[in-house]
Amino acid sequence: MTKKIAVLPGDGIGQEITEGTVDILHTFSSLFDRSMTFEYGLIGGHAIDETGDPLPEATVTLCQSSDAVLLGAVGGPKWDRNPSHLRPEKGLLGIRKALGLFANLRPVKAIPALLSSSTLKEEVVRDVDLLIVRELTGGLYFGEPSERRQVAGEDAVVDTLFYTRSEIERILRKGFELAQIRKKRVVSVDKANVLESSKLWREIAEEIAGDYPDVTLEHMLVDNAAMQLIRTPAQFDVVVTENLFGDILSDEASMLTGSLGMLPSASLSETGPGLFEPVHGSAPDIAGRNEANPMAMILSAAMMVRVSFGWEKEATLLEEAVFQTLKAGVCTKDIAAATNRAPVGTSDVIAEIKRQLQELA
Ligand code: ATP
Ligand code: MG
């Protein structure tokens, strides 16, 4: 079955890394006889310039009618002074909402070729292979900040951490399901010693754990989890947590194994298309200079073909092509310094990944 991919390059380096990634996916498609079509949509600053709207209706329709969405990055200094409804980030928030994306997945895996460049000791990060699953629709990110200020009055503020049973249950189930296809261990992170929402979270985790008898469940308080992530990160498989805790822990975890240019992410809905994007932003400082590391986005595409299309074996080969490229010493400036290599351009990295993929196929 042909898979339809909505491609949203966005702004800054989003443009060049998307071009390279789609190029690789064409090679992937013919090597593995997996049929994909690509349809392009506008989002972010480019969409504002062309249509006056950071998320044109046509883009929403395109994404909703696709099997998956591949997104580069949005934003840049050109639009920084725009009024709030004309900000590039509005496009990203809007598409997340329109697609009902409630689970944000950030895998962090040790990359042998980059181990020595980690700020942590090599033996601490060597076996890291974890997945942070962050709830994306509830929690403290509830209501507009200005409204909250008015509720409390001049010299007091209030934030609301709100969750419904069904929101908690669906993210926990996603965590258990993902653990089933990984190392079968879930660590549920909360603050159940102080927060009511965390007490309910823990109760629900216990209730549904019985539905996944092959997965072990452990509860961990968020402060402890923050410490354990630095102390012994290799102990984790799937970490599932609420919105704010997940925001903080996923940024913390992302630094375990190296560069921002290497980190993929996925955001999933209940039944509709998922959205796959690199963790990094549009990096306007290096945009258009053939310097951007395309690997985070290519690894995001690998997550897409694995999670959304079920092409497990091929996804692993695509990831392997990226790792072999690093091993061969072919990399962009962001990693070159840390690994004592001479940097090459984005397009050279793309060409080498294609070559490696052809060899592996
Ligand atoms: P955003 O607010 O959109 O998340 P940010 O302020 O977090 O953006 P990024 O755009 O993610 O910033 O990147 C920060 C810096 O890291 C960039 O300015 C760039 O120098 C570097 N960087 C980010 N991604 C890459 C990449 N793929 N390749 C090379 N360098 C990168
Ligand atoms: Mg950022």
From TrEMBL:
Cofactor: Mg(2+); Mn(2+)
Highest rank taxon of the organism: Bacteria
Main localisation: cytoplasm
Note on how the cofactor is bound: Binds 1 Mg(2+) or Mn(2+) ion per subunit.
Binding of substrate, residues: 96, 106, 134, 223
Assembly and binders: Homodimer.
Record's keyword annotation contains Oxidoreductase: yes
Classification via PROSITE patterns: IDH_IMDH
Binding site for Mg(2+): 223, 247, 251
GO cellular component assignments: cytosol
Subcellular location: Cytoplasm
Known function: Catalyzes the oxidation of 3-carboxy-2-hydroxy-4-methylpentanoate (3-isopropylmalate) to 3-carboxy-4-methyl-2-oxopentanoate. The product decarboxylates to 4-methyl-2 oxopentanoate.
The protein's name: 3-isopropylmalate dehydrogenase
Keyword annotations from UniProtKB, A to Z: Amino-acid biosynthesis, Branched-chain amino acid biosynthesis, Cytoplasm, Leucine biosynthesis, Magnesium, Manganese, Metal-binding, NAD, Oxidoreductase
Family under the similarity heading: Belongs to the isocitrate and isopropylmalate dehydrogenases family. LeuB type 1 subfamily.
Pathway this chain belongs to: Amino-acid biosynthesis; L-leucine biosynthesis; L-leucine from 3-methyl-2-oxobutanoate: step 3/4
Keyword Membrane among UniProt keywords: no
Annotated site location: Important for catalysis: 141, 191
Reaction(s) catalysed (UniProt annotation): (2R,3S)-3-isopropylmalate + NAD(+) = 4-methyl-2-oxopentanoate + CO2 + NADH
GO biological process: L-leucine biosynthetic process
